[in-house]
Amino acid sequence: MLKSYGYAAYNPQTPLRSFNFERRDPTAQDIVIEILYCGVCHSDIHQARNEWKSSSYPMVPGHEIIGRVSATGTEVSNFKIGDPVGVGCMVDSCGVCGDCQEHQEQFCHAAVFTYNSPDKHTGKITYGGYSNQIVVDQRFVLHISENLDLAAVAPLLCAGITTYSPLRHWNIKAGDKVGIVGLGGLGHMGVKFAHAFGAHTVLFTTSTHKVEDALRLGADEVVISKNIDEMQKHAQSFNFILDTVAAQHDLDQYLSLLKRDGILCLVGVPDYPHPTPSVANLIFKRRSLVGSLIGGIQETQEMLDFCATHNIVADIELIDIEKINHAYERMLKSDVKYRFVIDMASLTA
Ligand code: NAP
Ligand code: ZN
Fold first, then answer.
1. Which of 23, 51, 104, 294 gives 99 a disulfide partner, CB atoms 3.0 to 4.6 angstroms apart?
2. Cα 193 to ligand 2 centre (Å)
3. Same domain, residue pair 40 and 118
4. What total of structural domains would you count in the chain?
5. Other CB atoms closer than 10 Å to residue 122's CB: what's the count?
6. Per-residue pLDDT tens digits for 180-217
């Protein structure tokens, strides 16, 4: 076993603190990664605080992992010691079902998530990236370009792929009018990708002080979603709206902004359900309300390569690990610009 250390939630109420644990011994297929950076996703808060009612403790969160290969199993050929690599939300899947064969491992019945998920190898719960090292099957390890700022690449592993995948799946392109709801970790990547794909990009925010940043990040327009008049001006005009908000809210205010056949795609996962939207809002313009879950491994590599080519990374605040509880509190107040990333050099055994 590999002696490892990190930060864990011990229960839903108390702050995260240091935790010593063991990683499994690597198999021939495995890669051992020394973790350099780990992004802080709102899903980490939901799970550390048991908001989705599926948490096991102690829990080491973290699924936006960047590191360097420190060892490889005998059957690993695509990676060598020292390579910069990434790990996102998944570390395993069955590999044979229809979803896996179509490179949609996130939907596999046996997908193993990076933390808080039963590990096929050990039968125990997986531990995530708020830690010094991780052991991952080579099929779930991503190649990272040395040309980008590695700390700012970390959020691409979840916030990046979760916004890239639906924009690609629904074929967002120049000429489309796209809305992004919420300027947090996911939302700011959504703005960057929608802009990069050539769409007319409108950011919806509850925070009046984020307007300038949103324009700098690539939004063509910014709408303060609490302002009914501003919202009305965009009625029936959008092809696609991506909703990244981490809390319960009214979906009808966005459905009514879609044109005929428009799509409202939810990626935020609130702890309490949204009020049921109006049926009339859906049927009268044949609108769709859909959802999307991260993205497959092949598409995650495609997204990372796209970012390397187009020089796209997250806007981050790099923090020491002892600031993690403070970072959670700031995220809950929508006060993040626009992703916290933990510098793992600050972690001691
Ligand atoms: P985040 O950085 O905290 O950003 C969420 C944003 O939502 C806030 O910055 C805020 O933007 C907006 N918001 C409006 N009202 C809010 C409220 N009452 N409470 C909190 N936020 C509010 O979160 P994130 O990391 O981007 O994650 C967003 C959601 O996506 C979370 O629920 C997360 O679990 C989920 N998620 C889903 C997937 C997936 O595969 N579907 C993957 C990763 C994360 P404004 O200030 O601009 O209004
Ligand atoms: Zn995430």
1. 104
2. 17
3. yes
4. 2
5. 13
6. 999 999 999 999 999 999 999 999 999 999 999 999 99
**What is the CA(141)–ligand 2 centre distance, in A?**
16
Asked if residue 294 has its Cβ within 6 Å of ligand 1, the reply is yes
Ligand 1 pocket member 177 (CB < 6 A)? no
pLDDT tier at 278 (50, 70, 90 boundaries)?
A: very high
Q: At 115, is the secondary structure helix, strand, or coil?
A: coil
Q: Is ligand 1 within 6 A of the CB of residue 41?
A: yes
Residue at 268 is within a domain: yes
Burial label for 2, CB within 10 Å (0-12, 13-18, 19+), is: middle
Q: Treating both helix axes as pointing N-terminal to C-terminal, what angle do 185-196 and 159-169 enclose, rounded to 10 degrees? A: 40
Contact 186 CB / ligand 1 (< 6 Å) = yes
Q: Would you state the pLDDT for residue 17?
A: 98
pTM assigned to the model: 0.98
Residues 138 and 174 in one domain: no
42 lines ligand 1 (CB under 6 A): yes
Judgement on whether residues 125 and 38 belong to the same structural domain of the protein? yes
Domain span at 38: 2-158+314-346
* 151 shares a domain with 104: yes
Residue 286 lies in a domain: yes
